């Protein structure tokens, strides 16, 4: 099983992703960040996920509650104020680790070569860890990031939520040189969940099935289009056949634009000249994609 650390802001779709990862991957730790809702809930929900799946041995850490520069803009209309719809849960017995989430990231990646990082929320913890320990840029083997979009956004016309919450952090991570696989909205919105999926989960039943059905039902009833983005993203590492097309390109994070702050700008036609082969220049091959850049962008999902 692939060894991973998950940085997340649960969040309904984060909970689906955590359930999937805990079942199919070797999860070495979960770090919570403020995003969909505040850290007081995201870290609690992460701890709850470990109990729900019978894996309270997985350590859970709290990272940053606030983006590097902005105030936190939450998505509580999508996820509910506690992050898991309108479900009230008890305080988990599982305790939060004392170490700060960013320090856990630093310690883990400085000491290990074979663990990769999954990010399902704003990139604040990862960026802060890189600023504190710049060697991390060479130590993190790969990041699978649910964030950004190769098409349009969901938080603004241009920006996807996780990137818009903390564009400065995203810029640090995308410019770090760490290999990134991006499962952005252009991919995850190819997945659509509705009441039939809720019923299917109810039919499976059990503690996990019932919980999943409850939170998905909240999503379906409170949104005109529900996709469990974070679960789609991690599916890439559970079974890489799930992604049927991906393209490597240069992706830069816009931090200044009046309309485009938080946008992930994909350089499909090599305007930035980052393709060393220079085989596919924009003059020559309008319809061909270049083959280099900092990010492998997932394009198509096997539904
Ligand atoms: C992303 O934003 C959050 O609301 C979800 O949890 C997901 O990580 C989708 O834009
Ligand atoms: Ca998330």
Automatic annotation (TrEMBL):
Residues 4-303 form the Inosine/uridine-preferring nucleoside hydrolase domain. Pfam families: IU_nuc_hydro. InterPro entries: Inosine/uridine_hydrolase_dom, IUNH, Ribo_hydro-like. Keywords: Glycosidase, Hydrolase. One of its GO terms (molecular function) is hydrolase activity. This is Nucleoside hydrolase. It comes from Enterocloster hominis.
């Amino acid at each position: 099983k692939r060894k991973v650390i998950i940085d997340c802001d649960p969040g309904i779709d984060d909970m689906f992703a955590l359930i999937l990862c805990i079942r199919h991957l070797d999860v070495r730790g979960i770090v919570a960040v403020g995003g969909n809702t505040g850290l007081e809930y995201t870290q609690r929900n992460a701890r709850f996920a470990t109990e729900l799946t019978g894996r309270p041995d997985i350590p859970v850490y709290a990272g940053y509650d606030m983006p590097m520069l902005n105030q936190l803009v939450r998505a509580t209309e999508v996820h509910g104020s506690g992050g898991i719809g309108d479900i009230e849960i008890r305080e988990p017995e599982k305790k939060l680790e004392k170490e700060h989430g960013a320090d856990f990231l630093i310690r883990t990646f400085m000491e290990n070569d074979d663990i990769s990082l999954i990010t399902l929320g704003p990139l604040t913890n990862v960026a802060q860890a890189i600023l504190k320990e710049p060697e991390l840029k060479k130590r993190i083997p790969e990041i699978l990031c649910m964030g950004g979009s190769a098409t349009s956004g969901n938080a603004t016309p241009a920006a996807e939520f996780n990137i818009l919450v903390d564009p400065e952090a995203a810029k640090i991570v995308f410019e770090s040189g760490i290999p990134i696989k991006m499962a952005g909205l252009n991919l995850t919105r190819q997945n659509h969940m509705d009441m039939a999926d809720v019923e299917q989960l109810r039919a499976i039943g059990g503690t996990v099935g019932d919980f999943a059905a409850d939170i998905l039902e909240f999503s379906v009833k409170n949104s005109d289009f529900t996709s469990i983005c974070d679960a789609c993203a991690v599916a890439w590492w559970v079974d890489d056949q799930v992604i049927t097309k991906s393209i490597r390109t240069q992706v830069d994070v816009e931090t200044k634009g009046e309309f485009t702050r938080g946008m992930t700008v994909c350089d499909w036609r090599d305007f930035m000249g980052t393709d060393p082969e220079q085989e596919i220049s924009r003059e020559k091959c309008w319809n061909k994609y270049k083959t280099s850049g900092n990010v492998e962008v997932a394009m198509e999902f096997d539904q």
